[in-house]
Structure formats: C-alpha cells, structure tokens
Design a protein that fits this description.
By secondary structure, the protein is of the alpha/beta class. Helix content is 21%, strand content 22%. A 6-stranded mixed β-sheet has the order 10-11-9-12-13-16, with helices on both faces. It has a 5-stranded mixed β-sheet with strand order 3-1-8-5-6, with no helix packed on it. The protein has a 4-stranded mixed β-sheet with strand order 17-18-19-20. The chain is elongated and about 105 Å long. About 7% of the residues have low confidence.
Amino acid sequence: MFADRAKIYVRSGKGGDGHVSFRREKYVPDGGPDGGDGGNGGSVILRVDKGRNTLADYRHVRKYCAENGEDGGKRNCRGKNGKDIILKVPEGTVVKEFNSGKVIVDMSGDTTEFVLLKGGKGGNGNQHYATASMQAPKYAQPGQPFKELDLFLELKLIADVGLIGFPNVGKSTFLSRTTNAKPEIANYHFTTINPHLGVVDLKNGDGFVMADLPGLIEGAGEGAGLGHQFLRHIERTRLLIHVVDAASVEGRDPIEDIETINKELAVYSEDLAKRPQVIAANKIDAVVNDREAVDLDENGELIYADANDPIQKLKEHYEPLGIPVFPISGVTGEGVEELLYYVADRLKTLDDTPVTFSQEFDPEFEMAASSLPFDVYFDEAAKEFVIEGPRIEKMLGYTNLDSEKGFAFFQRFLKDNGILEELENLGIKEGDTVRMYGFSFDYYP
C-alpha cells in the first residue's frame, strides 16, 4: 500500500561524561589529573533517497535513536563518539514537528541532507580543570543531554503537471497512454487509490513529469473521503489538467463537475485554486444519452447538433476565462498529442522555481531558547515598549530580520512565545514603538 504519511519519534545521542582520574606511576606519588573527555553523541540526519517513493518503512518502525557517546577514560582516553542515525526519505518529504504541525524542513530541491538533531557534546575530563591553586581537581563535566522530537512525515509528490477530476473520468487511462506509468485501470469508482507519477517524452525533445491523483469527491477540500491525502500531492505542480467526462457516460454534467472540483481546490488552498488549468474533455469516442452525434466530419470527429455539443459548451464557458479546452479520447489517443504539446509549451512560460515549504520550526533554536527567560515592559522615559532577555538575544542570533522569511519567523516567534499577548496586556496600540536590542519597529496588530 502506498504510504505517504507517518509519525515517528527521534532522539539524538547523549554526550559521554568526562572522566575523573589521576596518573598512577611508579616513583610519581602525586600524579596530575588524566581524565579523558567524553565522546559526542550521534546526530539524527535526514537524507533524500531517490530510490524511495513511499514512507512505508516508517509505518513499521517508529522509534529512531542515535548512539550515545562513550564516557571518557583514564590516561587521557577520550570516549568514542556515538554513531549518527540516518533516516532516508523520498524526495518531496515535508518534516513537521508533530504537536505544532510546523514545518521543520522540506526535503526537496537543493535540500538533500539535513541535520535534524545534533548529538550532545561530550563532557571535559578533569584534566581541563587543573590550575595553580587546584592541581588535583575531582570534577569532570557531564556530557550534554540528548534531544528528542515527535515528527510527522508527509510526502508531497514532485511533478510539473497534476491530473485532477472526478472518479472514473479516464485519468489513469490518459496517464498510461502518455507516460511510462502503469496504473491499474478498470471501470470502477476509485480504481486509483494511490497517486502515480509518469514522465511524458515528446518527439521534439520536450518532456515533463505528470501525476495522476485519485478521483476527488465533493467535500474533499475539507477532508471528505481521502481529500486531503490526495490534494497534498498537487501542491507542488505548476499546471493542472482537469480531466472531465465530456460524454457524460455516468449522467453527470461536465461543467458542474469542473466547478465542484475547483471549489474543493479553493477550500483546500487558495493558491492551488489559482494554478493554471487546461481542460481535457475526455471520452469523445463515446456517444450516449441525448448527446448522440449527427455525423462524422472530414477528420472523423463526431459532429453534434448545436444544442447537444458538449465540447462547444465547455469551450464557450471556459475559453473566455483563459482556460483552453482540448477534446481527447484516452482510449483511441485522439487529440492527446495536441494537448501534450500545448502543456509542454505552456510550462515554458511558467515559473520553474520548485515549490517548497519554508521552515517554521528550528529544533536547535526552539530547544535552546524554550528554557531561557525574557522580559517585556514599557520604558517611561523613552515612551517605548521593550522586549529583552536571553531568549530574545538567542532568537536574534538565528534570525535575519532583513529577509522576508526571517521577519515572518520573527513574527511567529513573538506570537508563539506569548510576547504579543504581553504587549497587548501592557496597553500597546497601533503605531507604538517597540525596541529590541538595537532594533526598533512600529507595532501593527
């Protein structure tokens, strides 16, 4: 079964403790300290494995721990470092902190490896603490503790084009005809229960990656059926091919189907709803119900009476909106090549920057800063609100406030740590000045 989500627990290794010992040699009755340092704990590392396409391994094993560092020994022997643990994930895996749902890292694009949790540093042996006044120190430093996290792994497929539409409209047939993908195909609702990727190779050398998503249903944007599980896989696509049953084999109206699916896209994500679309009016080889063809034209295509022409209705409704309509038959291949060449050309005009998800949760920072204090107060002399303390200093050390992403992280930090709430309790108003270690900004709720 295709697995695209998993919850796991990860823990870095604890640093080994420093050792307390003294030289014991013949004729040297008062040897100095020779306690060795502890080894560093192993880190938890994420790495993209292009040979993987599911998260199935993480459904069966849910706990992953790096090795602890060994304690130091006598005679200045340093403890052995703990082994790192490397978690291999498919490209496109988004890693989130489980409790908050915030993104830690998106394993796509240039991010092929990421140190999730650094191992604890090994403690110093007592040899480091000898001074002129303390020549026999009986103290060694303990190793730094391990770090732990509950994670939520979510695979979001990486494709240029996504196929969307109601169940049983012919998306799998279209994908199998145009790419190297081999989805299971049958005349049943929800035949496709797993997403499939295929590569389209055109004769002129152009090509693109296309994803077939299982058929959507009304309410999918709010999670009905398997809606969210399917919709997440088209978040990275640059263009959508909306496959519709133009022949109304099952008695549904093609325009109503398109409008219903587009509403679900908007409910799930406004950005996704704005993605460029092309309509593939499929099943033009079928003639059913009251939409019977009058004749065949010179190209062998069906000719309908004006009132019954479903293709004309689709074109009149959507082409004025900038959404082209291509009549095709996934069974015979009619019209498919024209559609694919149009899609390839259209992709050239679209931004090809990979769609990635920005970091919202930095484990190293969050864990280091969570125990540090901060203070929020009003400076009467300067008539400014002041935010200061070790937690704020540490945050500024991690954050570039000159960048858009950095400033967004800064705003989330203020909200999540209750700082904005404290400012409001102090009576801050729109336009008041807030000062923070050399930075001043106007407050806007």
